[in-house]
């Protein structure tokens, strides 16, 4: 009832009212607002949302009343100041996070962004400051969880808001307004589609200039938000190039001494962490890969804080800790994990980290927060890339092996990645691979866990030498020239000729399994590529293949890190130190010598399964069906709901084919039946996809 009365009063305001009537209504609004929100807008969410849904309507009236200093403007400012206080802290973030309908948030954003007039920012008398602060707060936090583009912004808003900030960034009187502007730019800076316009309006240039301005620093909040903007921009490849051109890292380091002097220990520690993350995002991958980086106390400090943020944020419903979203930590960690020593240090010094990452992955494949799909996409892609880096290390394999649910999730992501993410999103850094590629990579690295006896399975002679070429696409022209020449003399497996399906990793595995020798075209880019590392690890560790490193004619790279260790002591051929013909002939002679060996050929998982199960499914009994459910880790509730009614293998196959054709309809039907059968219990997405994946594989086996 109180909410309705408040909204009715709000709507009743008009410019035609007498001064007394207007003041009486606004005073009533002021009292009700203060009573409903003693500790912020979260105190009463329905009230807060009703206020926000209607407040924009009376902004033109408030603007008119504020244009003159009188009793009406004084009363209006009292109300606006109370609303401004209610918007402080994390109250608006949590309020808008609770809104499950993204279209509702889009409407709120559009209603308020359009009201941010240039005149408000040209005012030197502070008469509109409370009004603008309220508009900025609602505008900024409402767009946290929705996509926006340049077309959604008022013309020149970024220009006149920057001019205002340049003029007032050290002003005590207008500090709060300045910080709400910086907060909005910080939020915009995390949205890749807005980064180009932010750069065009030279916000990065201004932030770096503010960092290096001599003399006393502004307020803690102003310095904090300047650093936040640079940190958000550093996530985007386009902005990284600009920030490095502006010597951002140097400016961060130079600003530290004055900030440490002007802010207390706790405040400086917070700023230092944001600057550390920015530093890590801006550092080149080659520098991160150098092992001496761990001798850098600055970097060790980053790691310690970073892991703490990830662990604490992952325990929160909103995934926030000290204003950091868990994705902030995950993205930086994924970049740092290209350094093997950093990865080992983090996992060995924090026993909780692997389990924390596992639980996050499981959580975001079974719970889909529909209003923030981009958060789910970003977390899943970043997590799978982190696990891909981890899976290269033998010491981690036991952790994977002991975590059954994690392995099921990774298998599902590999086979059904499109069911989990909307698309390859722009907010994910370019150096991260797609969800499917990363999941496939993990499973390939862990192949020996699932197939412990494969190396003892089959040995066979081959009729002619076969080489497989592993290379980075930076060397594709040299690779094409080499393949064209060598193909005259022996069989060659190379990706651009042999890969014909979407099962890229499976086809690469088959090529390696058949090859006598794996030829590596060594380059700096080969060293930087997770895919190339994956191929070499599989060839050496799982298959025990002979490798032959070669160098393109102009290649000056000296192998280091994991690649240097892998090829140390190996015979190599450099095509720049002799004629192409002589180098190619030397390669041919090495391959033909290797032909004398009898090489192991590892059958793929699918082939083994096909041999064991081919043509047998139709003959299954009910006990066989139950065994199949158990072996594929399908939830027992689904057997009770579905499997218990399938009496023959033929019936199971027909159902699997039906499920494949009518997946979405069947999901809705099974979810509904599941809820009825188990007293309102919700069917977990990961459980259903585990079932779908098993059915698809069963159909594939039978078809073959």
Automatic annotation (TrEMBL):
For biological process, the GO terms are: signal transduction
Q: Which positions fall inside the TIR domain?
A: 463-587
Q: Which residues form a coiled coil?
A: none
User: What Gene3D superfamilies does UniProt report for this protein, alphabetically?
Assistant: Toll/interleukin-1 receptor homology (TIR) domain
Among InterPro entries, the record links this protein to: TIR_dom (IPR000157), Toll_tir_struct_dom_sf (IPR035897)
Question: Tell me, what's a Pfam family for it?
Answer: TIR_2
Q: What is this protein called?
A: TIR domain-containing protein
């Amino acid at each position: 009832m109180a909410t309705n009365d408040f909204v009715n009063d709000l709507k009743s305001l008009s410019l035609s009212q007498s001064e007394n009537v207007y003041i009486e209504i606004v005073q009533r609004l002021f009292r009700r607002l203060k009573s409903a929100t003693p500790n912020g807008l979260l105190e009463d969410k329905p009230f807060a949302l009703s206020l926000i849904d209607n407040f924009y309507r009376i902004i033109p009236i408030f603007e008119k009343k504020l244009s003159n200093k009188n009793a009406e403007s004084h009363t209006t400012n009292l109300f606006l100041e109370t609303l401004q206080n209610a918007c402080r802290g994390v109250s608006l973030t949590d309020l808008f996070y609770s809104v499950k309908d993204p279209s509702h948030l889009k409407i709120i954003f559009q209603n308020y962004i359009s009201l941010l007039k240039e005149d408000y920012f040209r005012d030197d008398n502070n008469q509109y400051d409370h009004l603008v602060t309220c508009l900025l707060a609602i505008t900024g936090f409402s767009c946290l969880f929705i996509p926006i583009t340049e077309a959604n912004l008022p013309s020149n808003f970024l220009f006149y808001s920057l001019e205002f900030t340049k003029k007032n960034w050290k002003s005590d009187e207008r500090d709060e307004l300045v910080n709400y502007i910086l907060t909005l730019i910080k939020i915009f800076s995390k949205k890749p589609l807005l980064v180009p316009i932010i750069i065009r309006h030279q916000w990065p240039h201004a932030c770096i200039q503010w960092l290096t301005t001599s003399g006393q620093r502004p307020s803690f909040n102003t310095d904090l938000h300047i650093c936040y903007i640079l940190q958000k921009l550093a996530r985007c490849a386009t902005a990284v190039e600009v920030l490095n051109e502006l010597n951002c890292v140097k400016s961060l380091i130079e600003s530290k001494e004055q900030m440490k002097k002007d802010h207390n220990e706790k405040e400086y520690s917070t700023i230092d962490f944001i600057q550390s993350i920015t530093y890590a995002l801006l550092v080149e991958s080659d520098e991160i890969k150098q092992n001496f980086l761990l001798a850098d106390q600055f970097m060790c400090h980053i790691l310690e804080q970073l892991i703490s943020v990830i662990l604490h944020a992952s325990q929160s419903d909103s995934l926030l800790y000290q204003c950091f979203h868990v994705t902030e930590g995950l993205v930086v960690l994924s970049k740092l994990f290209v350094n093997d020593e950093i990865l080992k240090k983090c996992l060995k010094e924090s026993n909780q980290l692997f389990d924390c990452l596992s639980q996050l992955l499981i959580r975001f494949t079974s719970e889909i927060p529909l209003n923030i799909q981009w958060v789910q996409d970003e977390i899943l892609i970043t997590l799978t890339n982190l696990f891909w880096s981890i899976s290269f290390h033998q010491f981690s394999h036991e952790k994977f092996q002991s975590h059954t649910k994690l392995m099921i999730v990774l298998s599902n992501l590999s086979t059904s990645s499109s069911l989990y993410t909307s698309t390859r999103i722009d907010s994910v850094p370019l150096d991260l691979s797609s969800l499917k590629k990363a999941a496939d990579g993990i499973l390939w690295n862990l192949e020996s866990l699932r197939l412990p006896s494969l190396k003892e399975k089959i040995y066979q002679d081959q009729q002619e030498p076969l080489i497989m070429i592993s290379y980075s696409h930076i060397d594709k022209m040299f690779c094409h020239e080499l393949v064209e020449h060598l193909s005259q003399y022996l069989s060659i497996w190379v990706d651009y000729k042999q890969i014909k399906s979407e099962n890229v990793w499976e086809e690469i595995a088959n090529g390696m399994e058949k090859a006598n020798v794996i030829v590596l075209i060594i380059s700096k880019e080969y060293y930087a590529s997770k895919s190339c590392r994956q191929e070499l690890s599989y060839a050496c560790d799982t298959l025990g293949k002979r490798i032959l490193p070669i160098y393109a004619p102009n290649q000056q790279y000296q192998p280091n890190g994991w690649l240097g260790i892998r090829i140390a002591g190996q015979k190599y051929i450099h095509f720049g130190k002799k004629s192409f013909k002589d180098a190619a002939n030397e390669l041919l002679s090495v391959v033909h010598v290797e032909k004398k060996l009898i090489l192991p050929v590892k059958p793929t998982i699918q082939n083994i399964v096909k041999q064991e199960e081919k043509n047998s499914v139709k003959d299954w009994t009910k006990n066989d069906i139950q065994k199949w459910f158990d072996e594929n880790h399908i939830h027992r509730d689904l057997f009770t709901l579905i499997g218990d009614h399938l009496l023959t293998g033929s019936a199971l196959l027909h159902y699997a084919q039906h499920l494949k054709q009518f997946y979405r309809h069947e999901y809705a039907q099974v979810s509904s039946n599941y809820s009825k059968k188990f007293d309102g219990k919700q069917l977990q997405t990961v459980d259903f996809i585990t079932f779908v994946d098993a059915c698809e594989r069963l159909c594939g086996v039978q078809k073959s």
